[in-house]
Amino acid sequence: MPPPAKKPAPKKKPASLLPDFRFEIEEGAPGRIVCGVDEAGRGPLAGPVVAAAVVIDLTRCPEGLNDSKKLDAARRADLLAELADCAEIGVGIASVEEIDEINILHATMLAMTRAVASLPRAPHIALIDGNRCPPSLACASRAIIGGDALARSIAAASIVAKVTRDRMMAALAEAHPGYGFEKHMGYSTPAHFDALSRLGPCAIHRRSFAPVRKMLSPGLEEGLDLVSGESVNLLIQKAY
């Protein structure tokens, strides 16, 4: 009687793929100037929204570029230092006042437009993380959902935007002590809510965001323009 057939060894799961250059190459890089664009700071209750635009030299790309959310702070800082030596970088900022005046979605688009405009050279096309492109860009654009995990230039932009904003919030923490901005970066954490309840909103809190507006106007009922902090984040994710 023949021995029973051996079961095939289970296949190893493939390692997580890092972003690559396929989108940049599709758009003509390196012959054409292709930048990646991403932002940091849509959801927080405080601080500006920061966008970055990055043009990467395909022959001198730092190892390990990835969506900034998948990297720790130290690795992000190291990659930013490497990018500063081998990439063209533009940064755009929309202030708290602009966020409150035109809403967070439009302020994000404004910051992205400013980031692209601040590049050393005007790009031929911008690859935008998300499903919507800023309407006022001076170049062509292409939206890529989940682009920070797919395109290296967008991943690079996510790192630049995140590190830049985190450093801004750390500096703002010194000007507005007691809120812990250097730790939570303005996001809706229990520590942030505790500080808000003790100290009240400060100059860099977004008054158009529901938790802050409720604190300033306790009797104000929720309506179409006043929703919970969690709903604000969900609405932003769906709209952008």
Account of the 3D structure:
This protein has 240 residues and is of the alpha/beta class. The protein has one domain (22-239): 2-Layer Sandwich (Nucleotidyltransferase, domain 5). Helix content is 40%, strand content 14%. It has 9 helices and 5 strands; from the N terminus they run αββαβααββααααα. The chain has a 5-stranded mixed sheet with strand order 3-2-1-4-5. Strand 1 and strand 2 form a beta hairpin. Helix 2 (73-86) packs across helix 5 (152-175) and helix 3 packs across helix 4 (104-117). It starts with 21 loop residues before the first helix and ends with a helix.
Brief summary:
It is built from 9 helices and 5 strands, in the order H-E-E-H-E-H-H-E-E-H-H-H-H-H. The protein is globular. Strand 1 (34-40) and strand 2 form a beta hairpin.
SSE inventory with pairings:
Elements: H1 22-26, E1 34-40, E2 49-56, H2 73-86, E3 87-94, H3 96-102, H4 104-117, E4 125-129, E5 140-144, H5 152-175, H6 181-184, H7 190-199, H8 210-216, H9 229-239
Parallel strand pairs: 1-4, 4-5
Antiparallel strand pairs: 1-2, 2-3
